[in-house]
Amino acid sequence: MDRRAIEDCGVPSLVLMENAAQALCRCVVELLAERGGRVVKIVAGRGNNGGDGLALARQLLCRGLDVEVLLLAQPTELSGDAATNYAAAQKLGVQMTVVGNDKSPEALVARLAQADLVVDAILGTGISGEVKGAARRGIEAIGRLPQHRVVAVDVPSGIDSDTGQVLGAAVRACKTVTLGLPKVGLFCYPGAAYAGEVIVDPIGLPASLLEDNNIRTHLTTLADCRAVLPPRKPDAHKGDCGRVLVVAGSAGMSGAAALCGLGALRAGAGLVTVATPASINTILEVKLTEVMTAPLPETDDQTMAPAAEPILMDMSEKADVLVIGPGVSQAPPAQHVVRSLVQGVQKPIVVDADGLNALAQDLAVVAQRRAPTILTPHPGELSRLVGASSADIQKDRLTAARAFARQVGAVVVLKGAGTVIADPDGTAYVNPTGNQGMASGGTGDVLAGLIGGLMAQGAEAFPAAVAAVYIHGLAGDLAAERNARALIAGDLLDKVPDALALVE
Fold first, then answer.
1. What pTM does this model have?
2. Strand order of the sheet with strand 420-422?
3. Cα radius of gyration (the chain)
4. Sign (positive/negative) of CA torsion 356, 360, 365, 368?
5. Which domain holds residue 44?
6. Residues 271 and 191 in one domain
7. Looking at the DSSP assignment, which residues form a beta bridge with residue 68?
8. pLDDT digits (tens, 9 = 90+) for 202-251
9. 139 and 271 share a domain?
10. How far apart are CA 146 and CA 280, in angstroms?
11. Are residues 205 and 246 both part of a single domain?
């Protein structure tokens, strides 16, 4: 986009760099005003990231701040806009010290310790491979400082902007001023933890570029969700608002079935039925008031028996969407029923939890479907589905989710911090809501229900998944305001109405 703004739209590259410096300057000045102090040290590399830092130094000096640039390169190594801004800063009298030749970070650490705020302008988005040399020493020196004293330019140095992975060593910042558009690596872990609060500044990129339809990776926003929520007529009745059939539960897993059914109702579905083994149905009759239940034939182990299949096929005819899998167990009879439903039901479906484990034995039943399908694995479940390790999936969650969505022709919701929602056509969203308190049993069951509830009201599969994930995380954030450590799945259900109120 930088290149297209310069070459196609005629925006001078120096203007973009100056705009970036102004955005950084606003952030630095605001932080110093909040905390006190006036001493700023800018650690600058040789590329455009360093050029942004040099332009920032000039602006901070003009505001009367005590600023020093610590260069990790010789001035003769600078080129293009970075060299131009070095010359301008030099003429203006900005204090600049070359520290790139120091083999130990100790001297740099001592200088940085004098600062009220340190700006990381070492490396930007163009790096690949492990960080080495002077840049590594600069990163390690900044790493000796508390995170709350560091601001990063565009991305924290050492973070892969495409995946969020740490390339050997990386800067931890309290704020990252990212330029143009958000970077994927700022919202995927571990990069998100290094970035702190992310401030996005468009730096004057033409709107026509930002609206380019070739962009396939998005950060979910309130506006995205607002556009998905189905309108509700003033004279609507429950039949107008969609019917969800939840196939869930087994011995010890009645909670998964209950949470999923309530999630679908909280999303706005008009009628929700949870079909579950007969002995579990008795428990759900007590647990659930607003959700209907349907007893199914069961095995001696209180899991779905093969005889449940024709009953569920018949029930599916009256449903708008099925949610299959929460707590159904990995017992072979139940797994067989799941595969038969996925293969035989010609209605939109959401498959979660134990339902995904059933599909791992025969992914062809998903690829052969023609009706909308959403799969909601966490990394462990996806590893079983694709035969890769969870660690490898976590290294590049976007690529993993996209590849699996394309393989099976279904929408994939790869759960976890920075949940990725991928469509078979390659479009993907990264979700910014949610928190560590949601690492608790049952939260995924609520999400599956929310997705099914939105689809039942008429939302298409991919947008429904994007919106449901955002609302689910937002409900978690609202619940965490009380106490994140004590958060349980039921808290999410209680906060979904408040989350929807913020979206609508």
1. 0.94
2. 217-219, 428-430, 420-422, 411-414, 373-375, 349-351, 321-324, 243-247, 271-277, 292-296
3. 26
4. positive
5. 2-215
6. no
7. 41, 95
8. 999 998 887 777 889 999 999 999 999 988 888 999 998 999 999 999 99
9. no
10. 52
11. no
Secondary structure letter of residue 273 according to DSSP: E
- CA distances to 304, 309, 348, 370 from 365, rounded to whole Å, are 20, 16, 14, 10
Strands (E), 64-110: 66-71, 95-98
The helix or strand, by DSSP H or E, that contains position 377, with its residue range, turns out to be none
Mean pLDDT per 10-residue segment, the chain (504 residues): 90 95 97 95 96 98 96 94 97 93 80 96 91 94 95 97 95 97 94 96 89 87 94 89 97 97 97 98 96 97 97 97 97 96 97 95 93 97 95 95 98 97 97 96 97 97 98 98 96 97 94
**What is the 8-class DSSP label of residue 371?**
S
| Rounded Cα–Cα distance for residues 334 and 303 (Å) | 6
**Stated length of the chain:** 504
Q: Which residues fall within 8 angstroms of residue 97, CB to CB, at 6 or more apart?
A: 68, 69, 70, 71, 111
Q: Domains in the chain: how many in total?
A: 2
In a domain, 372, yes or no: yes
Residues 113 and 243 in one domain: no
* Secondary structure (H, E, C), 385-454: HHCCCHHHHHHCHHHHHHHHHHHHCCEEEECCCCCEEECCCCCEEECCCCCHHHCCCCHHHHHHHHHHHH
Indicate the SS3 state at residue 198.
strand
Q: Is residue 266 part of a domain?
A: yes
- The CATH number of residue 412's host domain is 3.40.1190.20
Same domain, 182 and 304: no
Query: Does residue 233 form part of some domain?
Result: no
- For residue 104, the model assigns a pLDDT of 72
201 and 328 within one domain: no
